[in-house]
Records
---
Amino acid sequence: MTARTISTVHPSPLGDLLLTGSVSSSGLTLTSLGMPGQRGAPGVHAQVREDGPFAEAHRQLDAYFAGRRTRFELPLTTGGTPFQRAVWKSLDDIPYGTTASYGELGARLGVPRAELRAVGRALGANPLLLVRPCHRVIGADGALRGYAGGVERKRWLLTHEGALQPVLV
């Protein structure tokens, strides 16, 4: 059996998340997770909506939003360049409830300071928001910058994870 691309929607406090995956006889591999209005969101290449193969992804997302999960353990496949894949993989090393600056992330990857924009561009192309937690990367001054899902969602996620204090109004 050849792999086929399918998608589903997962309701969340951030809006309906679009999950896309490749399913074969060995199961589902998640290829993208996007948010409504996401800048540069991966397109849906599947006309087929199937919820069943995404059962584990739904379970883990529900647990994350309920505060019971701090890491995702799902089979993932991403495109991208070798550099992008290295940046995305490095996100797994930023613990839940913490943040890292673009400079810190670049230093971990051996990227010269003069080329940090490449790290930002790679983060902006991350096809697996939440699962590969690019929302945990912030400016050196603590500013929330450059999240494809929007800065307000980044703030919500970091507050949910305890990395930011809730804003009182």
---
Amino acid sequence: MQVIVLGSAAGGGVPQWNCRCPVCRLAWSGDPRVEPRTQSSIAVSAGGGAWVLLNASPDLRAQISETPALHPRSGDRDSPIRAVVLTNGDVDHIAGLLSLRESQPFDVYGTADTLGLIRENQVFDVVSPAFVGRHTAEFGVPFSPATGLEMEFFTVPGKVPLWREDASLVIGEESGSTVGVTVKANGRRLVYVPGCAAVTPALRERIAGADLLFFDGTLYRDDEMIAAGVGTKTGARMGHLSMAGDGGTVELLKDVPVERRVFIHINNTNPALIDGSQERRAVEAAGWTLARDGMEFSL
């Protein structure tokens, strides 16, 4: 299985277009300690030139341009992208579908909740159903979006997308609004969880034994956006675990056996983005890697 990180940041990317938090200031100044990052998505392949995207970020057009494996190869119109698999209806995970509207055949897979959000929003009709199939994937039922790849959705504690929040909001519920994906090929297993509000026994069991884990790395500390003066919400309020602390991901998953563990969906305020920082050193000492755009894995 081949894996390419197309984008590694949370919504807004790094630097975010209107942000001057400490991390973004370094990025704007060209400081080499902070690598620019686009919004999160990965591409996977079992070989043969066919690729599947896990989420389609608003930066997808640029990500394809920067990834030779996803370039057209023959004829007048062509793409090696066979499918897009969606883990939720967040803008930073679905808006890229609008960049794939040029009558190119591929398939979209999601839960009933996520595909329902797309169906309700007529702007996504530009991704013509005449060319693009929409497939509802059920929990616990494997599906194959491309030859040699077997995927399966599983529930993850989360919440509805920001743009669908209302007075009935529940954070940490397990429903079709936020899911993880297992990807199997050639006897190897990838687990992809770009958004997560809590670690449950079922989630630990799902992750255990993975050859490669991509996990929600949005914030380092729960209150970092407030401390940086660029937001009013904690990570918990946004439906994201933090990396550090007694209730953080590093602590909660430290005894779960995983061959390689990588944080993805990293917010621009996260100090672990600064190479050499105390936070980066702590994450790496705990056995984690921070995803960066263009990173490749071979399983």
---
Amino acid sequence: MLNDVKSKINDKVDAFRQYREEQVRQKRELAETRARAEREKIRHEKEILLALSDKELMVEAIMLLRGYNERITDIEAEQADLDSRMDSAEADVRALEFKNSDQ
């Protein structure tokens, strides 16, 4: 009877080990697939850029920089809004603290 229990436990351990190994294999395959797709994307973009003339490259660079500039402007506006909200919240907290200290 003890041998039967040991056998069942070993079977469960082996089944779990196989399950984990399969999960690891699937995750590895997924990571490899993603890495391969990323390398292919980079290779494709490199081919496109290598085919461009100097003027076309400059235009691409300017467009890219303008996009980054727009993103920075948006982030700065959001930061200003958050700063304003923080200042307002801090003022509210100070007012509540002052009100509670008077009582």
